[in-house]
Write a structure and sequence with these properties.
The complex is a heterodimer.
Chain A: H1 3-13, H2 35-48, H3 50-53, E1 67-70, E2 73-76, H4 93-102, H5 117-120, H6 125-136, E3 149-150, H7 159-167, H8 181-191, H9 197-200, E4 218-220, E5 223-225, H10 240-249, H11 262-269, H12 274-288, H13 293-308, H14 315-328, H15 354-362, H16 384-397, H17 407-418
Antiparallel strand pairs in A: 1-2, 2-3, 4-5
Helix pairs in contact in A: 1-7, 2-6, 4-6, 8-12, 10-11, 10-12, 14-16, 15-17
Chain B: E1 2-6, E2 9-13, H1 21-28, E3 47-50, E4 53-56, E5 69-71, H2 84-91, H3 101-114, H4 120-127, H5 137-149
Parallel strand pairs in B: 1-5
Antiparallel strand pairs in B: 1-2, 3-4, 3-5
The chains are: A mainly alpha, B alpha+beta.
Chain lengths: ~425, ~150
């Protein structure tokens, strides 16, 4: 059945889907929580990346207002500080649990799944308890939520009930007894709080995960979230040790730097417990499985090319030589100022040009006032024609793959956003 | 021969097309305002304007600049008659060693051409790619604010 027809049928069946409002409570005091519990909640919130969507650029933590671009329109992260009027100060722990597990606010209204309760529904009672203690003890900020700007019919909140009836599965995390404790911990974090699938799993027309293809590559705010399963486009297969280093620091010697929506993720994971990040890395390594002999051969070729540097002729190659090579052909050794040889990055090998074009045009910059690797953007230096020549060259020379079909379209989209 | 439009004048250069604009300006045209800092597009000392936008001249080969309008520090004014942003940087004594200042001025010029009255936060964000090792950042920000105020 077509998705919209599904919605219509389910809407007809679902006339009384609204949930009961729950009574407001006085915001709990800091003294009512064990400091150790608050500290645990802080670490969990880092894994959950909560602050990123719920904090505007330059704004107060958790006070909302950050725009989140989706195919359905722009969502604005909400104020989840304990302010009783504009935040969630009136939420009891019971309300908080229901929001995370069932996607409902205190009034019983359905929350859009931009808030990833599809994943948070797997959280344990203890973890939600700690998260509540942490969130409830943040600085209360009076800041009205900005209404989402969604295209019709997605702006009709009641339709979320139908969406949930079809797609949302409320179920706790079920450990796999055949696997060890570290794998299970990783599975719990990756599929629960970490909500990695939000960006790395493909979604259908109505934004629901394609459950038969988990972690096979998704989208996030105009970026492609590369596949994490056996389809991984990484030229060099990831080991758990490399994944751990990357998830903690955003850097690994033979893989690309964390950029775009992944940058705040690694900044947060730097504050998470080491053993939790190791568990996530172990789970992700197992998810991709051992690389095939063919993949290993390709990896060796990519590593050899990275040492040899680039060579080719043509307009794109000339631009690369004058604009990119000073850093990217230098190798990435400490203190060299060098950047990743492009043959080792995924932006070149994924099925879309979006990531390469975004990095080329916008560059990579750490959040203001924070340390991190920086690459200048070339939006103003290169014309559209030059960007296209450069992308074509990089795709063929370093991605070793057929030309992207979407360069024109992606380039127009990014230029439009920048206006 | 490569033809470049620099500060309103057409210049013919007998240079390799891969030559970075910075070298073309300094070594061929004796326009020494733009500075070599890192050569990697990381410091901003080489900033010039291309079609009114700030561009890092050390990582911009001249082959990409046909038909485009290049403006350097020398294009904004002279020692006798400095331009508006240059006057503001002098008035605020924004330079200490001065090495980064040409890039800072060009970056500020690019900002003010698009955003004539930037907020302090907009100035800081826009200028964040230009590094100053002496630490006169506060004076630089004040200079940009002054340039935005003055006619």
């Amino acid at each position: 059945m077509r998705p919209l027809a599904q919605i219509a049928v389910a809407a007809a069946m679902c006339s009384a889907c609204a949930a009961e409002p729950l009574a407001p409570v006085a915001a709990p005091t800091r003294a009512s929580f064990d400091p150790a519990l608050i500290a645990k909640g802080a670490q969990l919130a880092a894994i959950g990346n909560c602050q990123v969507c719920h904090t505007a650029e330059g704004g107060k933590s958790f006070a909302g207002g950050r725009p989140i671009e989706t195919p359905f329109g722009t969502f604005y992260g909400t104020n989840i500080t304990p302010d009783p009027d504009t935040g969630i100060g009136g939420w009891s722990e019971q309300v908080f649990v229901r929001a995370l597990r069932e996607g409902l606010d205190r009034d019983g209204r359905h929350l859009y799944p931009a808030f990833p309760y599809e994943y948070y529904t797997r959280l344990t009672d203890e973890d939600i308890h700690a998260l509540y203690a942490y969130i409830a003890t943040r600085e209360a900020v009076h800041a009205q939520n900005r209404p989402h700007e969604l295209r019709a019919p997605f702006n009709i909140r009641a339709l979320v009930a139908t969406w949930k009836a079809i797609y949302f599965e409320r179920a706790p995390f079920r450990p796999d007894p055949a696997r060890d404790a570290q794998w299970n911990r990783g599975a719990y974090l990756v599929n629960g709080l970490g909500h990695c699938g939000a960006c790395h799993t493909p979604r259908g027309a109505l934004g629901a995960e394609k459950k038969d293809r988990p972690f096979s590559g998704g989208i996030a705010e105009g970026w492609h979230g590369p596949a994490l399963d056996a389809r991984s486009p990484a030229p060099v297969p990831w080991t758990a040790e490399q994944l751990f280093k990357y998830l903690r620091t955003g850097l690994d010697d033979v893989h690309a730097i964390a950029a775009g929506p992944m940058d705040p993720v690694v900044r947060n994971l730097a504050r998470a417990p080491e053993e939790d990040v190791r568990a996530m890395a172990a789970y992700l390594e197992a998810l991709a499985g051992p690389p095939s002999a063919e993949r290993r051969k390709k990896a060796d070729a990519a590593l050899a090319q990275a040492k040899a540097g680039s060579r080719a002729n043509g307009r794109g190659a000339e631009i690369y030589a004058g604009t990119c090579a000073a850093c990217h052909d230098r190798g990435r050794e400490a203190g060299s100022g060098g950047a990743l040889p492009l043959g080792l990055g995924t932006a070149m090998t994924i099925p879309t040009s979006s990531n390469l074009l975004r990095i080329t045009l916008e560059g990579i910059a750490p959040p203001e006032g924070q340390p991190g690797r920086a690459m200048p953007g070339f939006a103003d230096a290169l014309t559209d024609g030059q960007v296209k020549d450069l992308a074509a060259y990089i795709r063929s020379e370093f991605g070793r793959a057929p030309a992207w079909p979407d360069v024109e379209q992606e380039l127009r989209k990014i230029r439009e956003e920048r206006k | 021969m490569i033809s470049l439009d620099v500060n309103g004048k057409t210049q013919e250069l007998d240079a390799d097309p891969a030559t970075p604009l910075l070298y073309a300006l300094r070594d061929y045209l004796q326009l020494n305002g733009a500075k070599f800092g890192c050569g990697l597009g990381q410091c901003g000392a080489c900033t010039v304007l291309v079609d009114g936008r700030a561009v890092l001249s050390c990582v911009t080969p001249i082959s990409t600049l046909a038909g485009r309008r290049i403006t350097t520090l020398e294009g904004l004014g002279t020692p006798e008659k400095p331009g508006r942003v240059q006057r503001a940087f002098i008035a605020e004594q924004a330079a200490q060693c001065g090495y980064c200042i040409p890039g800072m001025i060009m970056q500020a010029q690019a900002l003010l051409e698009r955003t004539p009255h930037p907020t302090s936060a907009e100035i800081r964000k826009h200028m964040s790619g230009n590094l100053c090792r002496c630490g006169t950042h506060m004076r630089i920000v004040r200079a940009v604010e002054r340039a935005a105020r003055e006619p």
